Amino acid sequence: MKNTIPFILLLFPILLSAQNTNVSGMISNAQGTIVQSVEVSLLDEQGQLITTQMTTNGRYTFEGLPAGYNYIIRLNKGGTPLNGLSTLDFVMIARHIIGIDPLGSELQIRTADIDGNGQVSVVDLVYLRHLILSIISELPNQRNWLFIAEDGTPPNSPQANSFSFYLQGGSITKNFLIQKVGDLNDNAVYN
Ligand SMILES: [Ca+2]
Ligand SMILES: [Ca+2]
User: Fold this and answer.
1) 3-state secondary structure of 152
2) Ligand positioned closest to the Cα atom of 112
């Protein structure tokens, strides 16, 4: 019994930090505009859904999470697949493929990679053309938006909008950039 109280005092900061283990963040686009109505899901490391919420004023918060585990954040947003897509985007991707006007940034490359296979090719152009001409009504894997973690965490696969991380304790911030797949000139409506 004599040793119990110091032991509890020793544990107290750990218990306190476990209770305050939160993950929160902001979703914005490349222009810095906060983006509403993004569905943010929290999954355990086996991929089982723990909880899901929609962003409020571009922000999500998961509170009171047990520390010392791996988690997955999965992001999604609804809306029409054609949002922001036109022949101008088609031309920009085509010019990249034939080497006239290569796309510069990683964000642009990932935006042009419509089927999400990790490279920009004629296949991506075919999907975009078929969508614009209403030959297809959805992009491959119904993947209309892509997300990039501000802290550089890579997605779990090139196609995935899910990101794994280890929660050590305390509160962490995970902000994400959202971009419409295929929208190279960035004229999609976000909100
Ligand atoms: Ca591709
Ligand atoms: Ca566009």
Assistant:
1) coil
2) 1
Cα–Cα distance, 70 to 46 (Å, whole number): 9
What ligand is nearest to the CA atom of residue 82? 2
Task: Note the pLDDT of residue 159.
Answer: 82
pLDDT above 90 covers what percent of the chain? 81
pLDDT at 158: 80
Q: Decide: residue 171, CB within 10 A, 0-12 exposed, 13-18 middle, 19+ buried.
A: middle
Residue 68 scores a pLDDT above 80: yes
Q: What residues have CB less than 8 Å from 127, skipping those under 6 apart?
A: 114, 115, 136, 139, 140
Q: What's the CATH class of domain 4-180? A: mainly beta
Burial of 29 (0-12, 13-18, 19+ CB in 10 A): middle
d(CA 23, CA 171): 6
Question: If you measure from the C-alpha of residue 71 to the centroid of ligand 1, how many angstroms do you get, rounded to a whole number?
Answer: 28
> What spacing in Å lies between the alpha carbon of 74 and ligand 2's midpoint?
25
Confidence of residue 3 (pLDDT cuts 50, 70, 90): low
